[in-house]
Structure formats: C-alpha cells, structure tokens
Amino acid sequence: MGKSSKFISINWNGNLAYAIGLFTSDGCLSSDGRHLEFNSKDKEQIEHFRKCLNLNNKITKKARSNEKIKKYYRIQFGSVQFYKFLESIGLSSRKSRTLQEVKIPQEFFPDFLRGLFDGDGCFRIFTHSESRYPQLRTSFASASPPFIRWLQQKIKKALGIEGFIGKAKRDENLIYAIADSLKLLNYMYYSPNIICLSRKFQKAKPYFMRT
After folding, report:
1. d(CA 29, CA 114)
2. 3-state secondary structure (DSSP) of residue 107
3. Per the structure, how many domains does the chain have?
C-alpha cells in the first residue's frame, strides 16, 4: 500500500452507511492506525465498496492463509482520517469478536443493514418437511455476541420484529422467519435504485416484492 493518506467524505448518506455495513462484515483495520482492507469473494462487492467511498485504488486478488488459489478480491487503502472515523462509530482493529455496536444515524440504518446483509447475511428458501410450503429465513452472522444482540434490538426498534438467535460453531446467527423476513427485506430494499449485491437481491426479489 502506498504512503499517502486519503481523505474520504464522512457526510452521512445511504452509500456511506452501506459501505460501513460491508466493512463491518468483511473489512480489516490495520493496527498501524492508517491502513484499511476490504475483502470479498464477490468482485461486485469490492466495486460497490470502492464506488461508495469514491476510491480509485486497484482491486487485487488474494488467497486465504491456508490456501494457494487466489479466489478472494480485495481493496487496500490508507486514510488516517477515515480510520479514526470508523473507530469513533465503534469499529476497531480487533472487531470480529469485540464489536459492541455501530453508531449509525437511524435514517441510514436500512442501508447499513443491507451492507451487513450483503457481507455476512444469508437468505434461505426451503420446503417445510410436513406442510410442504416454502419457508423463508433471513439471517445475519457475527462472531461477537454483544453485536448480534445490539443488532437484534436495533431491528426490533425499527420494525417491531424479534427474530431469534442461534449458535453455530464460531458465530451466532440472528434469524428471521417468513413474515419477519418479508418485513426485513422490504426495509433493506426500499428502492429499486439502491446499491446492493445483485445475486442476493435477485434471489430475494420474488418474495419481498409480493408484500
């Protein structure tokens, strides 16, 4: 990464909130107080992140520590100013397991939530074993239990839906079933012109557009 330190606008808008949602999921703050990195299997995700923050840094590929094939995309940049801003709203260099909450204006919480969903969220469709009716599940994963509980309360305050928390091997999952999934999806995808990961949008679109 270069030695220059970029200035990134931190005037709140939907794109900034979306980018912070993405970074909360798959971003990394270096311990040096300046450098940042965002990774994803989806190149589109990296392109969205770069566009939202008005970056011109090159998108490269990398392999995970125990792999040889470079199948992950990433963008790296240096910005002391943006690094400090992220710290001021709750992120840190060890955020995976220590994250408590992210200070997002309520007006832009749907955009933050959509970024979080595009990064660490999942939308599942399956058939109930007895009724044979389609079942929907929308979920968010995190290795930080306090963050999952904060997220649950924020969504409850915004939409009046509770969801439930399930445990996986390393993460906890905040899960919403059929009716609550539809409310949540309509909340996140409030306009046809918003920025989002197209493969998740297309998978969910036939369902939430019915409400």
Report:
1. 21
2. helix
3. 2
State the CB neighbour count (10 A cutoff) for residue 108: 18
pTM score, whole prediction: 0.92
Residue of 151, 110, 149 lying closest to 18 (CA atoms): 110
First to last CA, the chain: 47
Of 98, 128, 148, which marks where a domain is finished? 98
Residue 168 belongs to domain with CATH number: 3.10.28.10
**Which pLDDT tens digit goes with each residue over 83-127?**
999 999 999 987 777 899 999 999 999 999 999 999 999 998 887
Which of 10-14, 72-76, 124-128, 173-177 is least confident?
124-128
Could you tell me which residues are beta bridge partners of residue 165?
174
Residue 116 one-letter amino acid: L
Contact 30, 93 (CB under 8 A): yes
Range of the domain at 82: 14-98
What's the Cα-to-Cα distance from 30 to each of 3, 45, 76, 94, rounded to whole Å? 14, 21, 10, 9
Could you tell me the sign of the dihedral formed by the alpha carbons of 182, 171, 77, 35, in that order?
positive
Inside any domain, residue 104: no
Rg of the chain, C-alpha, whole Å: 17
Structure tokens at 27: 């971003």
6, 77 Cβ separation under 8 angstroms? yes
